[in-house]
Amino acid sequence: xxxxxxxxxxxxxxxxxxxxxxxxxxxxxxxxxxxxxxxxxxxxxxxxxxxxxxxxxxxxxxxxxxxxxxxxxxxxxxxxxxxxxxxxxxxxxxxxxxxxxxxxxxxxxxxxxxxxxxxxxxxxxxxxxxxxxxxxxxxxxxxxxxxxxxxxxxxxxxxxxxxxxxxxxxxxxxxxxxxxxxxxxxxxxxxxxxxxxxxxxxxxx
Length: 205
Ligand SMILES: [Zn+2]
Fold this sequence. Notes:
This protein is an alpha+beta fold. The protein contains five helices and six strands.
């Protein structure tokens, strides 16, 4: 996985759509300008899975969000963006997420957590198709753990603290959908901040 690797148009399309919702069109354009991505102003990539944009362009956008809002200010924005991108992907690919037909009322919290574990596995498997075999996913006493190395969310970034908040936001969206409640999710290690991996823990409620 490198900066010049191609990724699906949809990754950037969803990023821009989400940013537009969260920050408004002017906010999005400010970031595109700052990030040197002017060619995408009013000219978003198509919403399809063709490998038509560069990984680098996604990272440039993230760098732009951090540059404009600062690292602390960027985190909640990235988190909201991650939560929103979960909702958009759920609307677009309900079958991938296999969430139709989960009856929350009839399940114990432990069963629902098992359901979350199973569905998140499907998402990790689907992500391998886009980003390669960079994931380690397992359950331990803390909860569900995802390790990413190298990490496509923070490739080439240098930050003071964890920054892969798009990922934690996405996980929160998924957990809330399946468990019916918000859970504690942490990025406990981050390559951008000098760790050897990005590590995420979805705690049991
Ligand atoms: Zn990362």
